[in-house]
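> tool_call: predict_assembly(chains=two)
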Amino acid sequence: MHELSIATNIVSEVEAAARAHNAAAVSSVTLAIGRLCGVVPGALQFGFEIVREGSLLAQAELVIEEEPVVVWCPEGNHTVELSDMAFRCPEHGCPTPEILSGKGMEILRFEISNFAGTSDMKEEVTQ
Amino acid sequence: MTTPRVVELRKNVMNRHDRKAALLRRYFQSTQTCVINLVSSPGTGKTELLTEILRSMVDRGIAAAALVGDCATDNDAKRLETSAAPVRQIVTEGLCHLEATMLDEHVQGWDLNGIDFLFIENVGNLVCPSAFDLGESLRVVLLSVTEGEDKPLKYPQMFNSADFALLTKMDLAGPCEFDLAAARDNIETVSPGMTVLETSARNPQSVQAVVDHMVQLRQLDLGSQSVPTDSLSTT
């Protein structure tokens, strides 16, 4: 259940960035999660709902975009998306040890619903 | 009225961990310590094999130390200490994996200068530890013959993230009717080209071969680092 620890990271990273933008509340966070990074989206959602309490993300929704595993086929000299965890080119049948994407875990963006302090108009100008 | 505003962050989720791991890696490189992260499911014989590896290294005059992570108890540290190598225990109090910050706390004040190998025995778990970089030089995954040959297919992320694999308890391969070829095929499927060594804590020659492989990889690693010549001459 390392997803709880990862959810804690997400909340603290987004909260710090949101504060820097003078946010009072964040309404959504979008992540890209590689299929190779060993994170279960459902467990991450569960962890996120626990750790977001009391933060600027208390009302935030977590949107998870799953990133496919993309490898390099050395025989056909092309990139190929794998549909399972067998590291073999579906076209050429050769082993594909070189992984181009699918290992990452990235916070893509977040959406601020409320700004702190002064009027929204002023915030718009200062951003 | 509020105006929603989208902020493109593009930040690695593991940023905090990875930064700490990068600092640790730099420290380990400065002391020329090869750090080996041992990962496997519980019961593959990590502690038993590591005790023999440490013993073999101590006998050969290779300076080795170990950090062992468990959810509870210091039983494993006590077992590893019988090798005469310095050992520290990390009790995770239920956490299913080790993180770079925990490692950092336990490495604090430990002078690794002159330590050639530092082993990290991770918490027995084939899922969670795969996501956490500890600043290690090598990640080694263990699969014992008492487990199913298809473990690599069931836990592809872990096997794929490893630098090499050890098949352990090979002395029991016969009684367990372990299908060696199938196990090797399955590892090859999820991690093409990865080195697989067969070993048993009961067979000193096989432990020697593992130590030889580690020594070789450490030399390769040291060779590839741009270490200033003055720091090379001190060891």
